[in-house]
Amino acid sequence: MKIPNNLVVVRGGGDLATGVVYRLMRSGFQVIILEIEKPTVIRRTVAFAEAVYRGTAAVEGLQAIRVKNAREALHNLSETRVPIIVDPYGDSLSILKPHIVVDAILAKRNLGTSINMAPIVIGLGPGFCAGIDVHAVIETNRGHNLGRVFLNGEAEPDTGVPGVIGGFDAQRILRAPADGVIRIEKEICTRVSCGDIIAYVEDLPVVSQLDGVLRGLITDGLWVGKNLKVGDVDPRCKIEYCYSISDKARALGGGVLEAILYLLRKEGNG
Known about the structure:
Layout: E1 7-11, H1 15-26, E2 30-35, H2 51-54, E3 56-59, E4 62-67, H3 70-75, E5 81-86, H4 93-96, E6 100-103, E7 120-124, E8 136-138, E9 149-150, E10 173-175, E11 180-184, E12 191-192, E13 197-201, E14 204-207, E15 212-217, E16 223-224, E17 229-234, H5 247-268
Parallel strand pairs: 1-2, 1-6, 2-5, 4-5, 6-7, 7-8
Antiparallel strand pairs: 3-4, 8-9, 10-17, 11-13, 11-16, 12-15, 13-14, 15-17
């Protein structure tokens, strides 16, 4: 089983991770994604994690395909296809032995990534300390430093406040009103109005707080915890944004690419 020398393993397949994967693949790297059994992805139309549920997922000309194990993943690598394995703990890494591992779970905390997983390990957002947990940290907070590479220290702490889009921040986020199973009433890309019921958690409604386009919505039938983010309304009302990688995701992809190239050059210089 031959391991390509340009292989990157990315933990996480959400929309921001997908932006990272897209930029890496366009730059000549081959990528394998590791995901959990039931991803709680919101922007599913631009997330490779959707392949966990559907078997395949296409984003801007690239395709993710769910595979069973590391051997099948290596067999399915190509310039336009990224294999995705359900492997929440990274067990496949001992077989794949990649030179580069990227933690793009964006859990705001470290869920088990260590600096010993590969010669180059990169973490996105809060929860990682460059030089201790990983070799580099990428800033994920919107603003002046978005996408910045840190070779020492940490990214900014989680603010708990969503980024501003179209003049709205917290109002655009749909959250579960209680613990329970979610039942979806509307589809991604639907135009919605303030007061519309988007979903139910048990018998409690999830209601839009503004007019816009439903840009993201969690998978129907999942169990969700109270206050979990389950959807995203975009007040800009651009349906095409539902099908394209966001500016933030592309910025994070650029930061990861910069970190990889810098660390590879540093290795080459001894």
